[in-house]
Design brief:
Radius of gyration: 18 Å
Strand content: 5-15%
Helix content: 40-55%
CATH superfamily of the largest domain: CofE-like
Number of helices: 10
CATH topology of the largest domain: 60s Ribosomal Protein L30, Chain: A
Shape: globular
Largest sheet: 5 strands, mixed
CATH architecture of the largest domain: 2-Layer Sandwich
Number of strands: 7
Strand order of the largest sheet: 1-7-2-5-6
CATH class of the largest domain: Alpha Beta
Length: 221
C-alpha cells in the first residue's frame, strides 16, 4: 500500500514580488511527481503577493481602538492595528456589526459568530509578531485567490494537486484553497501536525508524496 510522506522544502526568505510557483520550481521542482500534492503556507503566499502593511503606516479609527478591547489578547484583532486591518479588508461596519452579534451570541452559549460574520480576512489576519522575521513587524493579510494559486501549482508541475494551507502548532489546520478534485478535509487531517516551518526553519512548502495513489487505494479497499 502506498505510504503518504510529508516532505518540507527549505527556501530562502521570500518577499513581496517573489512568485510562489517559480519558488516551488526552484526549490522542489525535481521532487514533485504526478501522484503528489504540493501545499504552501498561506502567510508566505500572502507575503509574496505583497499583502502586508506596517502598523506605522496605519491610522486606526476610534471604532477599531474600541472594538479591539473586546478581543482576547491572544487574538490578532486584539490590537487596534489588527482590528483596523480587518475593517480595511472587510468593511468597517460589517466588522462592527459582527462584533455586536458575536457578543449577543456568546450570551446564549454560541461562539465563533463574530468570525462567521466579519468575513474571511478577519480570521486570517496575522498581527505583528504573528509571522516569520523580517515580517514580524507587519500586519499580514490572508492570501488573495488561494484556489487560483493551488490551480497554478497543479498546472505548472502536472502533479495531482495544489493547496494553500493555514496550519499552526495547536493542531488547527484549515485549507484555504485547493485545486479541483481535492478534498480539503482530508488534506487538513494530513497536515494537522504542522509540517510547515515559517520561522527559522524556512520550510513554507510541503510536498505530500503519493497522495493520489494512497487515496485511490483507500477508496477501493
Amino acid at each position: 500500500m502506498a505510504i503518504v510522506e510529508l516532505i518540507p522544502v527549505k527556501t530562502r526568505i521570500l518577499t513581496p514580488g517573489d512568485d510562489i510557483v517559480a519558488t516551488i520550481a526552484a526549490y522542489a521542482g525535481d521532487n514533485i511527481g504526478p501522484d503528489d500534492v504540493v501545499s504552501v503556507a498561506e502567510s508566505v503566499v500572502a507575503i509574496t503577493q505583497g499583502r502586508i502593511v506596517r502598523p506605522e503606516d496605519m491610522d486606526p479609527c476610534f471604532l477599531a481602538k474600541l472594538l479591539c478591547r473586546l478581543v482576547p489578547q491572544k487574538g490578532s484583532l486584539s490590537s487596534a492595528y489588527g482590528m483596523q486591518a480587518a475593517m480595511d479588508a472587510e468593511g468597517k461596519w460589517r466588522v462592527a456589526w459582527a462584533m455586536v452579534m458575536g457578543i449577543l451570541a456568546k450570551l446564549v452559549g454560541r461562539s465563533g459568530v463574530f468570525y462567521e460574520m466579519a468575513g474571511e480576512q478577519a480570521a486570517l489576519i496575522d498581527d505583528v509578531t504573528g509571522t516569520m522575521p523580517p515580517f514580524d513587524k507587519h500586519i499580514v493579510y490572508g492570501p488573495a485567490d488561494p484556489n487560483g494559486v493551488a490551480e497554478a501549482i497543479k498546472t505548472r508541475f502536472g502533479c495531482h494537486g495544489g493547496a494553500v494551507a493555514d496550519v499552526n502548532d495547536l493542531k488547527r489546520a484549515a485549507i484555504l484553497g485547493v485545486s479541483a478534485g481535492l478534498n480539503p478535509a482530508n488534506l487538513a487531517q494530513i497536515l494537522i501536525d504542522n509540517p510547515f516551518g515559517n520561522a527559522s526553519q524556512r520550510t513554507p512548502i510541503v510536498i505530500i508524496k503519493n497522495y493520489a495513489q494512497a487515496a485511490q487505494e483507500l477508496a477501493t479497499a
